[in-house]
C-alpha cells in the first residue's frame, strides 16, 4: 500500500484548512497567486497563512507567467519552500527563476496525449520537480485547478523520470488510490477534489483524500 505517498493540497485559503492538511499528513501546501482563480490570495494574506503553517508542511507559491517583480513581492513577504510555475514559462525562464530566487522550482507540465510527455524530459533538465497535470481545455480561464483528469495509462510503467514528480488533475478521495496504482506516482496534488465549491476547501474531504492516497 502507498503509505509513503507525499500529498500536496493546493489552493488553500484558510488557516483551518492549512492545519487540517498538516494534521492529516500533507507534505505540501499550495498558495495560488493568480487573480482569475477562486483560490487567489493577496500577498499579505498568504504571508499570514504561511507564517502560521505547522513546521514540516512545505509551502509552495503557485504563479502563472509571473514577472521578476511579481515574484520579488511574493518571495519577499511569504516564507516559502518552493515555487510552482504553472504557465508557459520556458526552460530558460525556469532556470532563471531558480537562480534568482534560490528556491526549488516545480514546473507544471500539461498532459493530454503521448506527445506531451516530451515536455517532462525537457523540463527535467532545469526544474527540481515536475507537476504532471491535465492539460487545460482550450479557452479555459485557469491553466490548472480545473478538476479534470488525463488518461493515467500514459504514465503507466514510466514512473522513473529524472526528477521527483507529482501527479495532478481531477484527483479525488474516490480515485486517488487507483491513480497511484496505475501511474506509480509517489506524490499527488489535489485542489478541486477537496472542495465543496470552486475555491471552498473542506477539512473532511482533505482528510479523506490524504487517507486514501496514503492507504
Ligand atoms: O488551482 C488554481 O486555481 C490554479 C490557477 C492557476 C494555475 C494553476 C492552478 N492550480 C494548479 C494546481 O496545482 C492544481 O492543484 C492542479 O492543477 C490540480 O487541480 P485539480 O484538477 O483541481 O485537482
TrEMBL record:
What InterPro entries is this protein classified in?
Answer: Aldolase_TIM, PRAI_dom, RibuloseP-bd_barrel, TrpF_fam
Q: Which residues form a coiled coil?
A: none
User: Does Amino-acid biosynthesis count among this protein's keywords?
Assistant: yes
Keywords tagged on the record: Amino-acid biosynthesis, Aromatic amino acid biosynthesis, Isomerase, Tryptophan biosynthesis
Whether Iron counts among this entry's keywords is: no
The highest taxon in the source lineage is Bacteria
Q: What EC identifiers does the entry list?
A: 5.3.1.24
Q: Which residues form the N-(5'phosphoribosyl) anthranilate isomerase (PRAI) domain?
A: 7-210
Pathway given in the UniProt record: Amino-acid biosynthesis; L-tryptophan biosynthesis; L-tryptophan from chorismate: step 3/5
Reactions listed under catalytic activity: N-(5-phospho-beta-D-ribosyl)anthranilate = 1-(2-carboxyphenylamino)-1-deoxy-D-ribulose 5-phosphate
Q: Can you provide one Gene Ontology molecular function annotated for this UniProt record?
A: phosphoribosylanthranilate isomerase activity
Question: Do you know which Gene3D superfamilies this protein is assigned to?
Answer: Aldolase class I (3.20.20.70)
Q: Which family does it belong to?
A: Belongs to the TrpF family.
What is the official name of this protein in its record? N-(5'-phosphoribosyl)anthranilate isomerase
Gene this chain is encoded by:
trpF
Amino acid at each position: 500500500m502507498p503509505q509513503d505517498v507525499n500529498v500536496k493540497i493546493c489552493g488553500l485559503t484558510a488557516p483551518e484548512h492549512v492545519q487540517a492538511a498538516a494534521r492529516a499528513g500533507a507534505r505540501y501546501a499550495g498558495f495560488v497567486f493568480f487573480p482569475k482563480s477562486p483560490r487567489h490570495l493577496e500577498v499579505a494574506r498568504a504571508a499570514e497563512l504561511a507564517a502560521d503553517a505547522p513546521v514540516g508542511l512545505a509551502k509552495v507559491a503557485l504563479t502563472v507567467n509571473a514577472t521578476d517583480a511579481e515574484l520579488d513581492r511574493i518571495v519577499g513577504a511569504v516564507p516559502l519552500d518552493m515555487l510552482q510555475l504553472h504557465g508557459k514559462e520556458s526552460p530558460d525562464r525556469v532556470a532563471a527563476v531558480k537562480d534568482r530566487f534560490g528556491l526549488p522550482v516545480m514546473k507544471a507540465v500539461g498532459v493530454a496525449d503521448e506527445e506531451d510527455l516530451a515536455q517532462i524530459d525537457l523540463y527535467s533538465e532545469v526544474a527540481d520537480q515536475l507537476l504532471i497535470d491535465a492539460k487545460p481545455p482550450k479557452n479555459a480561464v485557469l491553466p490548472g485547478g480545473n478538476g479534470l483528469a488525463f488518461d493515467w495509462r500514459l504514465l503507466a510503467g514510466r514512473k522513473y523520470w529524472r526528477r521527483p514528480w507529482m501527479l495532478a488533475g481531477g484527483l479525488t478521495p474516490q480515485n486517488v488510490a487507483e491513480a497511484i496504482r496505475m501511474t506509480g506516482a509517489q506524490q499527488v496534488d489535489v485542489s478541486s477534489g477537496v472542495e465543496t465549491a470552486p475555491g471552498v476547501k473542506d477539512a473532511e474531504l482533505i482528510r479523506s483524500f490524504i487517507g486514501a492516497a496514503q492507504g
